[in-house]
Amino acid sequence: MAMPPKPWPTGLVETIEPLVRRVLAPNGSPFTYTGTQTYLVGTREGLAVIDPGPDLAEHLAALIAAIDGAPVLAIACTHTHRDHSPAAAPLAALTGAPVIGCAPLSITSDEPRADAPFDQDYAPDRVLQDGESIRGPGWTLTAIATPGHTSNHLCFALEESGALFTGDHVMGWSTSVVSPPDGDMADYLASLERLYEREDRIYYPAHGPAVTKPRQLVRGMIGHRRQREKQILRLLDGVAQPIGSLVPLMYKSVPEALWSAAAQSVKAHLIDLEQRGLVTRMEDVWTTNA
């Protein structure tokens, strides 16, 4: 999806349905689209803040203005990439709200990463398990475990309206980067299958427009990943190759500046195929099994 023309509505409060408002952070990039969308769920009597975003003074000021003195009952993070969770701590300090949501995550691998680095300072007051809920006056947010993009990724279902806040797991503008060692393609596909079985009315991702035909999009995303699998197996059939040789062949229509991210998803596919006994690697070179 092409980037929309500027100016983007950073810092503005947009009401998108009766219980949901949105504030866009000023961190647009090729990996974040127009920026991280922070969602405020609830009413003047009490609300939750989903994905508070990057720790930027301008964004925090916009969130405080949007909250406008209402009680903040929870600050909920879908995962701990640095464009999602760093504002949780300063927002908690300003509002007195607890940080409730995904588990903390520590990445010890020295492998280069193409996606946003993790927020090492994230420290939740309470970790939500799959199926647990946060409640406020007239609203209920239920955690749906969706590992894959990251191992600690959660979506949040707004039970009263049928909306699902999908973080980076499902986005309408782009597929998610699945970046090993923490990103896992098998988990990602299983999580997509789980969402496909649900009946959510609409998705609100952390980046990009709302998804108004959720199951149709998820079905297409699963098909896209299966096609990538087949493409990898076809390219490796009788020709051992490193990932660096596969990416230009698989992503001809993608700007070269994004190939490093694409390489991470190719690697995630290869690890999944290796675990299923379909490919073998020797150092950095991969080949199909006979």
TrEMBL record:
A family per Pfam: Lactamase_B
- What positions does the domain Metallo-beta-lactamase occupy? 35-207
Tell me which InterPro entries the record gives. LACTB2_WH, Metallo-B-lactamas, RibonucZ/Hydroxyglut_hydro, Sec-metab_biosynth-thioest, WH-like_DNA-bd_sf
Keyword RNA-binding assigned to the entry: answer is no
Recorded hits in Gene3D superfamilies, A to Z, give:
Ribonuclease Z/Hydroxyacylglutathione hydrolase-like, Winged helix-like DNA-binding domain superfamily/Winged helix DNA-binding domain
One of the entry's Gene Ontology molecular-function terms is: hydrolase activity
Alphabetic keyword roster: Hydrolase
Which domain of life does this protein belong to?
Bacteria
Q: Which PANTHER family match?
A: ENDORIBONUCLEASE LACTB2
Q: What is this protein called?
A: MBL fold metallo-hydrolase
